[in-house]
Amino acid sequence: MYSAPPRSAEVPNRHSLFWKLAILLVGFCLLMIGLSWTWGRHMQTQNAYLSDEARILLSGYAAEAEQAWLQGGRSGVDAWLADMADRESTWISVVGPDLQSLSSTPLTPEQSRKMTFLRGVDWPVSRRVTGLPWMRVPFVERPELGLLVIELPQRLLPGQYRLYWQALTNGIIPGLFTLLLCVGLYRMLIMPLIQLREQANAWRADRLSARVASSTTSRQDELGELGRAFDDMAERLQGTVALQQQLLRDLSHELRTPLSRLRVACEGEADAGQLRERLGREIDCMQRLVEDALQLAWLDTERAPPSQEPIQVQALWEMLAEDACFESTWPPAQLHCALDASCWVQGNLNSVAQALENILRNAIRHSPATGMIRLDGHRHGKYWLLWLEDQGGGVAETELERIFAPFTRLDGSRPGDGGFGLGLSIARNAIARQGGKLWAQNTGQGLRLYIQLPVAAEPHTASLKLQARS
User: Which of 124, 160, 383, 430 could serve as a FRET partner for 255 with CA atoms 20 to 30 Å apart?
Assistant: First the structure.
C-alpha cells in the first residue's frame, strides 16, 4: 500500500516537478538566446556583404575593362563603357592608380570627391549611407594598372530578403520553438491531470477498478505521487465496498439459521421456560454476530490513528486469562504465559486487548478440553514478536491465510463448537492499526499465531489499568 513520505513545503527535493519545469524553461531560454545569437550573426553577415554571385559579376566587369584598356586604350575604354551603358543602368568608370579617368571623359569634381569613399567588394555594405554605394574592383591580371569604379546596381545590394529573414528569425522560428515548449508542458502537466480527471469520473460512474495510467504513477515527482495516491484511494475504496458487500451477504446468510430456529421454537409446543431459554440463546447469538460484523466493518473503514500507550503484556494476559477461564471453565494452569514483566509493547490498549482476547478464545474453542495454551515471545529489534500456540491439531497449509478472512470457519480441519469466523479477522485488523502484524503457522501439534508489535519503553512508575472495551 502506497504511503507518500512527508515532505517540506519550502524546499523541493531532487525529483520535484519544480526542477523539471526549471530545467525545461531555462533550457528553452538558453536555446532561444543561442539561436538569436548565432542565427542573428549569420543573417547580419548575409545582409551586410555582397553575395558570391555579385562579386563574380563585378570581377568579370573589371576583367572586361582591363582588356579594353590593354587592347584599345582610351578608345577601347570608351567603347566598353558605351556597351556597359546598355547592360547596366548605373554609373560606371575606369580609373587609373591616381584615381583619374582612363576614358576620354574626365571625372567631375563631385565624382572625384566620391573616389575617396570607395568600398571594396569584400567590405560590408552599410545600408545607412544615402544612395547606392560606389565599389572599387581592381583589374584582375594587372591590378596596378587601374580599377573599375561602379555605383552598385540596386539588384546587387545585399539584404534583398531582409524583411523575409526578419520575419523568419523573429517570428516563425521562435513561434515553432514556443509551440514545442507548449507541447512539452502539456505532456508534463496536462496529460497527467487528464488521467486523474478520468480516474475521478470513473469513481463517479462506480467503476472502482479503474486505475491511473502507469506513465503517470511511475513518475518520480508530485504528479506521480498524486497518481499513486489516487490508485491507493481506489484500492481502499474498492476493498471497503467489497468488504461491505461481502459482510452483507455473509451476515444475511448467518442470520437465517438463528431466525429459522426462532421460528421453529415459536411454532413448537415447548413450555414457556424452554421457549424463553431458547429465545435468549438465539438473541445472544444474533447480538454477538451483529456486534462482531459491525466491529470488523469499523476497523476496516476507520483511518484515524488510535491513541497509543505502553502496555505490559503479562498483566494484560492475566486479566484475559481470568475472563477466559470463567467463560470456558478451563483451569488457569492450562493457560500459561512464559513472558515476564519486561515485555512492554506500544499500542492502543483496547484494540490490543480485543485482538489478544479473540485469539485466546479461538485457541480455546479449537483445543481439546485437556489441552495447553501457551503465550511466549522475544524481542526482535524495535518489535516484540509474541506467539500464542494451542494443541488443536492445526490447519492445512493452504488455509493458513484464509483463516483471517471474515466468516471463514474450517470446522472440518479443526473440530469445535463453531463461532462466526470473525474473531481472527477482527484481531488482524486491530493489530494492523497498531503498526503490527498477525500471521499463523502450524507447529505439528496445533496452531501458532504470531503477533508483532512495536516495543515500548518500560515506564518507571506505571500501573496497567484496563479500560472498558466497546
Answer: 430
Give the contacts of 74 (CB within 8 A, at least 6 positions apart): 102, 103, 104
The β-bridge partners of 452 are 385, 437
Among 170-179, 279-288, 384-393, name the one with the lowest average pLDDT.
Answer: 279-288
> Among 389, 325, 400, which residue's Cα sits nearest to residue 363?
389
Read off the DSSP letter of residue 187: I
Q: Is 339 helix (H, G, I), strand (E, B) or coil?
A: coil
Describe the strand order of the beta sheet including 335-337 as a list of residue ranges. Answer: 335-337, 373-380, 383-389, 447-454, 437-442
Give the largest CA-CA distance in the chain.
155
- Separation between Cα atoms, residue 296 and residue 281, nearest integer Å: 23
Which residue, among 212, 122, 457, has the nearest Cα to 311 in the 3D structure?
Answer: 457
Q: What is the pLDDT of residues 327-384, one digit of tens each?
A: 888 999 999 999 988 899 998 888 899 889 889 988 998 888 888 999 999 998 899 9
Among residues 59, 51, 52, the alpha carbon closest in space to that of 161 is found at 51
Inter-residue contact 120 to 136 (CB < 8 Å): yes
pLDDT at 431 over 60: yes
Q: What is the pLDDT of residues 114-171, one digit of tens each?
A: 888 888 888 887 655 567 889 999 999 999 999 999 998 888 887 666 667 667 777 7
Do 429 and 280 contact (CB within 8 A), yes or no?
Answer: no
Q: Contacts from 456-461 at CB under 8 Å and sequence distance 24+?
A: 456/309, 456/310, 456/311, 456/344, 456/345, 456/346, 456/347, 457/310, 457/344, 458/310, 458/312, 458/342, 458/344, 459/310, 459/344
Give the cell for residue 230.
Answer: 489516487
Sign of the four-CA dihedral 297, 300, 305, 306? positive
Cβ contact 300:429 at 8 Å:
yes
CATH number of 50-156: 3.30.450.170
**Is 309-454 in CATH node 1.10.3720.10?**
no
Enter the C-alpha cell of residue 212.
Answer: 491511473
In the chain, where the domains are located:
17-44+162-207, 50-156, 222-301, 309-454
Q: Measure the CA dihedral 412/417/422/428, to 10°.
A: -80
In Å, how far from its chain's centre is CA 449?
Answer: 39
Q: Compare 380 and 43 and report the one with higher pLDDT.
A: 380
* CA atoms of 261 and 452, how far apart (whole Å): 41
CB of 334 closer than 8 Å to CB of 364? no
Block residue for cell numbers 481502499: 236
